[in-house]
Structure formats: C-alpha cells, structure tokens
Automatic annotation (TrEMBL):
Keywords: Signal. This is TraB/GumN family protein. It comes from the Bacteria. The keyword Signal applies. CDD domains: Tiki. The lineage of its organism: Bacteria, Pseudomonadati, Pseudomonadota, Alphaproteobacteria, Rhodobacterales. Residues 1-20 form the signal peptide. It comes from Pelagovum pacificum.
Length: 329
C-alpha cells in the first residue's frame, strides 16, 4: 500500500501538462468570441507572454532559461536535439528537482505516507456531501484510483490526481518523462552538475499548510469532466509547443468559469490563492537561489508556466537587476 501511494505521489507531483495520447478537439477551437477576446487581452497585458527560451545576464553570471513540460511528447525530440548540447557547455543545470530530490521524495513518501494521506479524523466521504463524494469517486475511478484509496487522500492531493485526464494515465504509468528529465540525462552524460531550486517537499508543504476547508473548496472546484479536461490538455500541449505560455495559463480561468458559473468569484479566489503560493512564492524563492549562482554560465529549466507574468520568474529576475532577453542561440 505504501509503495502504491508513493507511485501516485511521484506521478502527481512531477507530472505537468499532458501527453500526446490526449487527442481530439483543442479547447482553443471551442472558445466563444468572449473567451477568445479574454485570452487575447490577458496575454497582451502579460510580460514575457510568449517564448520558451530566454537569456538572463547579471554581472558575470549568464543563464539560459528553458520553459519545460514534465511529461513525454514526441514533439520534444527536436527540442532536446537543439538545446541538449548546450547542457555540456554550462557550469551547472538548475531544476525544480534533480534525481537526488526525486529519490528523497520517493523514500520519504514510502516511509511516511501520512504526508499525502488522512491518517486520523474524518476521511473525505465524511467531510463531503454524498453527491459531491460520488462525483469525485467516479472521477477517481476513471483515473485508476480506487475510491477507497481516494477517500484517504488529503483533499489537495486528490485535486492533483483528478486534474490528470484519464487519457494521460497510461503514459504516466509507463514512466516516460518530459523535457526536464531529458535535460537531466544530458547533464549526467556530460558530467554537468545539477542543482535543485527548492527542497523536494516544497509543494507538499505549501499545499498542506492550507486550511482543510480551503483544500476542500479546491477539490470541489477542480473536478473537471473528462472531455473538457482532455480538450484543455490538447490546447495546453499545442500552446506549449507554440510558445504561448501566458495563454495556456489563462485557459485555466476559462475552464473554471465554465464549470463554476454560480460560484465564479469564490472559485477565482481559491485559484488565485494557490497561484500565489505555487507560482509566485516559489518564483521569488528561486530568484534568491539564482542570485547566488555563478560566476559563469548556467541553465535553468523550470515549468513553462513559471516564466510569464508580473510575478513570473523572468520579470522577478529583471526586478532583481538581471537583463532578460529572448535566447538567440
């Protein structure tokens, strides 16, 4: 049982957007005129809205910054062919987590599954009304998570599991990984040192510090019908490979509004709270780490959603005195 939950944790905490097995209609193709206008306007107002490759300079430290996804897709092959050789030319590769942190997480979760599970007090069926629980249980079953296991998950963790469309499950189980792991392989082959931008348990700690009622609200608001989840994943992946980083982030607001018409303000407040914790807080911490990097050349590979925006990694680096430009290598 402990190993099962650890495997689920590794899938949930290291998986990112989607995979090529999620096919069909893109959410971009279903947007109303109002939704399309919102997306265009939001992206136009967002600093560093487009692009996966950036260069940042601060004194005698130069960084190549790469926006990644954390799961496999054949379209990554030409990307790694282009940027992979650069790993051997830098002094260090900075990542959200290196193999060291991933191994620490696996061992820690096997030893103490209580970091993800409800180990005392009421379980989820006891905290939720019957209709809501049955909806969640059905969604969990569709993702190969038995309801008895889902009932013991902390609300934030089940939210992550349900955010994975069922079309992704087979790929995640296969162990195929995304661009960050491709870059790790390049670093291992080249002997380039790797550094983690944060401890392995950062995400767990940020989620776990949220009050239980906030976690339950997140769980209620984040349950997406599988067809809409798949459309979102297709759009996110297509948008990623087109470098539309701001737009693919804003898609979540459109999905939330479609799902929570009557509770849109409350849903927005919940997601804004988690956006602050999971993106802004981490981005600021990463800047502190990068300020201590160098001198020399480094590569920074982080999820593409961390790059754009007023509190995105790129803008925060600029505010710290770095010169940030599109990478022209």
């Amino acid at each position: 049982m402990r190993q099962t939950f650890a495997a689920l944790a590794l899938a949930g905490l290291t998986a990112g957007a989607a995979d090529a097995q999620c096919g069909g209609t893109s959410l971009f193709d279903t947007l109303t005129a109002e939704e399309a206008a919102y997306l265009t306007d939001a992206a136009a107002k967002t600093p560093h809205a487009n692009g996966l490759y950036w260069s940042a300079q601060d004194g005698d430290t130069t960084a190549i910054i790469v926006g990644t996804i954390h799961v496999a897709d054949p379209r990554l092959d030409p990307m790694i062919a282009a940027i992979g050789p650069l790993v051997s030319e830098v002094d260090e590769l900075y990542l959200e987590a290196t193999p060291v942190e991933e191994n620490e997480m696996e061992q820690a979760l096997i030893a103490d599954p209580g970091q993800l599970l409800i180990t005392e007090g009421p379980t989820l069926p006891e905290m939720l009304d019957e209709e809501t629980w049955q909806t969640l249980a059905a969604a969990a079953s569709a993702r190969q998570v038995p309801p008895f296991m889902a009932s013991q998950m902390k609300p934030w963790y089940l939210s992550m599991a349900l955010g994975t469309p069922s079309c992704m499950i087979e790929l995640l189980a296969s162990g195929e990984r995304g661009l960050d792991h491709m870059l790790m392989a390049e670093a291992e082959a080249a002997g380039t040192p790797m550094r983690a931008l944060e401890p392995w348990n950062t995400l767990i700690r940020l989620f776990d510090e949220s009050p239980i009622d906030v976690q339950l609200d997140l769980l209620r608001f984040s349950t997406v019908p599988d067809d809409l989840a798949e459309q979102s994943m297709v759009a996110m992946m297509d948008g990623y490979f087109e470098g539309r980083t701001a737009e693919i982030w804003e898609l979540s607001a459109i999905v939330s509004k479609r799902l929570n018409q009557g509770d849109d303000a409350e849903a927005k407040a919940i997601f804004d709270l988690y956006e602050t914790e999971l993106l802004e807080t981490r981005n600021r911490n990463w800047v502190d780490v990068l300020e201590k990097a160098g001198p020399g050349n480094i590569m920074v590979a982080v999820g593409a959603g961390h790059l754009p925006g007023d509190t995105g990694l790129l803008r925060l680096l600029e505010q710290a005195g770095w010169t940030v430009e599109p990478y022209e290598g």
